[in-house]
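Proteins fold reproducibly. Next comes an illustrative record:
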Amino acid sequence: MRISTTDAEKDSLRCDDPSVLTDERNLIIKALEVFRRKSGSKQHFDVTLTKRCPNQAGLGGGSSNGATALWAANRLTRFGATDDTLAEWSRELGSDLPFFLASKGAALCSGIGDEVFPMTPEAVGGHGGMVFVKPPFGRGLPTPAVYKEYAKGDGQAPQPLNDLTRGAVELRPELLSIAKDMEDVMGLTGVSMSGSGSCLFGYGKPERLEDFKAKYPGTMVWSDIVPVFRESGQWYNVDDADALVSAV
């Protein structure tokens, strides 16, 4: 994301993905509105978004965009709100946004996800490699539908790490076989679903990657994903060489 101040009387947002809404329904625009309301600033912004996270994958792409916009607006206007203050403001935008602002990239979250307890990178596996797998489900899994299925209390889950997997599997049973083959074919460990899906992740260096892709045509695989952390006073820095880490 690239963001700058503008003399225009409203915010502008452009995105290279035509499926992304660029009006007041986008979290970026909503975040800038929240910043002005909370800070009293009259400043507007020009934003260009390069979409990296697939839609409805459970990777927090939209939330990270909103958090980035809020943090950047505070920095560009030199308003001086603390990260904790920004995290508090972001709660009205969504329960996932406070994580990006109140932590440095690793945290234990409780409540509805908006209560953030920062952790060190080492506590969550450090800087080791990960693999992301996006099944060929079109745009992905709608979060409300996953929660609805989860609330029924039925279904299976390949790992106990993410309870929402049960709801996702009710909608897409093939998630079970994909998760199993991420372990059996690619040799990954700790395979689980990200958020409400449909993206799955695992740890390690993938083996027999082409065999896995051949078995699941149309599946998107990002290997050698590296977690991103930030220093105090800085934002998350994503190298251009990374195929997928964040939408910031």
Confidence is low (pLDDT under 50) at residues 240-248. The chain is about 30% helix and 15% strand. Residues 127-225 form a domain with the Alpha-Beta Plaits fold (CATH 3.30.70.890). The first strand starts at residue 2 and ends at 6.
